[in-house]
Design brief:
Length: 329
Amino acid sequence: MLCYGEGLLTSLTVLLATVLALSRSPALGCLLTAGLYLALHLCSLEPAPPRAAKQVLRPRGAAARIAHRGGAHDAPENTLAAIRQAAENGAAGVELDVEFTADGIPILMHDDTVERTTDGSGRLRDLTFDEIRKLDPSAKHRLWSKFQGEKVPTLKEAVVEALQHNLIIYFDVKGHANQAVDALKQLYLEFPRLYNSSVVCSFMPDVVYKMRRADRNVVTALTHRPWHLSHFGDGTPYFSSFWKHYLYMMMDVILDWSLHSFLWRLCGVSAFLVQKNFISQEYVRHWSSKGIHVVAWTVNTFTEKSYYETILECNYITDSLVEDCDPHY
């Protein structure tokens, strides 16, 4: 991960030096730098109130265990059964993926296709809710026989189930920024408890920014994995084309710098959800000094969990609450 330096001041200093070197005009350099600073200041959003953020991100006053997709190793991911199983296994919360069907119904689904987790095939944008409801989300799970009869739940059904079990909800928005913000805004109106028991997070800064603009009381977080534009979670490159691969790697560098320099401030986030391999004590201390919580993912061994709970003292997202397992990408 790139060094996060001294934040916005470092970024603006680099910009000023670059403009001076290219234009040799102190006036232009100062004007552009001051203009950018003013624009960021005017457009930046305040984070959710610290008390509310702490209640959501430190629900029991200590590092919280969050079940990834409801605990994808212990039960079929993104199902009501997974939420119930996570509560039974002692999770403080669940991370749930928000997607949409072809007819605009918000559901729980990680991928934009249904092949990996169900007995069906096709893209979500081509399937209606009635068609997806007929699929079996436990069909590909290792414990499928224990969870027969499960259905792909609506987002509202998942919220009701999680609230019944007093679980914190991490809404992981996969895309469709405007659609997702509208759906979540309606849920917060219908279930005011969510303000003190949920966080909206996304890899996409526009989702987080629009959510904060729509409702300033919602706790939000940016999700990040270095090189996620150019590589899969297991490190395999997305693209076989040499030029496309390195173009996206360059975009990854710019995104990493932007997130750690100014996007976190622009979006008004309360937390960073970061892939575990890029978190250190220094990283946690740095963001803690700015009032930002760090949440690690995906932490799947007891040794790692102990490290995050006792040494780093930060929340972590895990695929299993009961045993060591491989990561679910």
